[in-house]
Amino acid sequence: MKAPLKVGVAGLGAVGREVAKRLAAGIPGLQLAAISARDHEKARRIVPDEAVKILDAKGLAETCDVIVEGLPPAEFRNFAEPAIDRGRIFVPLSVGKLLENWDLVERARERGARILVPTGALLGLDAVRAAAEGTIHSVTMVTRKPPEGLAGAAYLVERNISVENLKEPLKVFDGSAREGARGFPANVNVAAALSLAGIGPDKTTLQIWADPTVSRNTHRIDVDADTVRFSMTIENVPSENPRTGRVVALSVVAQLRGLVSELKVGT
């Protein structure tokens, strides 16, 4: 039997904490080897098993086969670089930051590393990737979130756009996925993932609405290609962090299972 893949989880926010707990509970072929967090005492309460080490970015890269990144965007490169330099599998949740650090993709090719972007809060990326093997004419995404899920985003702060006490939906952004990922780094990593699966961040169109009429983070995607035309809508139940859906952590766990499972369904 093969030795289990050693997984490290960087960041124990709403997503990282759930991923770590599920790994600690046991998934065949996977071992939670290490975690990384600023507050070591809190981290140990989340993962009490002393066999799971608490390490910094360099330690994770040296110890683990797979590193799951669930950190504040500012910490992205600090953990991505050593993981990639060691030829590890790097699973980023801050996908928008990958667009701003694109040199890491070439670096991964040179070092024999892999960057695996999880589906996250979306659906149908298999269909988008398949369509991209042909010619995609357009990809449009419309995101609607409860206002509290967008509050504090850099784009809104810079433009003095308030989403408090809204009585009706307010469109707060209309542009490319690249611009949206830059202005809403904690909110629309899904747009970055969609763009990477399809026609790229500059050609993928994104709208963001602060909508007091919805209680779930909602994404609608429309794709027009030479081989297929389709629309998808997903409504995600927010986690304890309103910016992130509960399904994101489960998406990461499903992707990790796919690394070791004898049967993998989907592209």
Report the CATH superfamily of the largest domain. Answer: NAD(P)-binding Rossmann-like Domain
Strand content: 15-25%
CATH architecture of the largest domain: 3-Layer(aba) Sandwich
Radius of gyration: 18 Å
What is the average per-residue confidence, as pLDDT, rounded to a whole number? Answer: 94
Summarize the amount of helix as a percent range: 25-40%
The level-1 CATH class of the largest domain: Alpha Beta
Largest sheet: 6 strands, parallel
Any idea how many domains?
A: 2
**The CATH topology of the largest domain:** Rossmann fold
Count of alpha and pi helical runs: 11
Q: What sort of overall outline do the alpha carbons produce when their principal axes are compared?
A: globular
Characterise the protein shown here:
This protein is α/β, with parallel strands linked by helices and 267 residues long. It has 2 domains: 5-120 and 247-260, 3-Layer(aba) Sandwich (Rossmann fold), CATH 3.40.50; 125-236, Dihydrodipicolinate Reductase, domain 2 (2-Layer Sandwich), CATH 3.30.360. Helices cover 35% and strands 24% of the residues. Strands 3-2-1-4-5-6 form a 6-stranded parallel beta sheet, sandwiched between helices. A 5-stranded mixed beta sheet has the order 8-9-7-10-11. Strand 1, helix 1 and strand 2 (30-36) form a beta-alpha-beta unit. Helix 3 (57-63) runs parallel beside helix 4 (76-85) and helix 4 runs parallel beside helix 6 (103-111). It starts with a strand and ends in a 7-residue tail after the last helix.
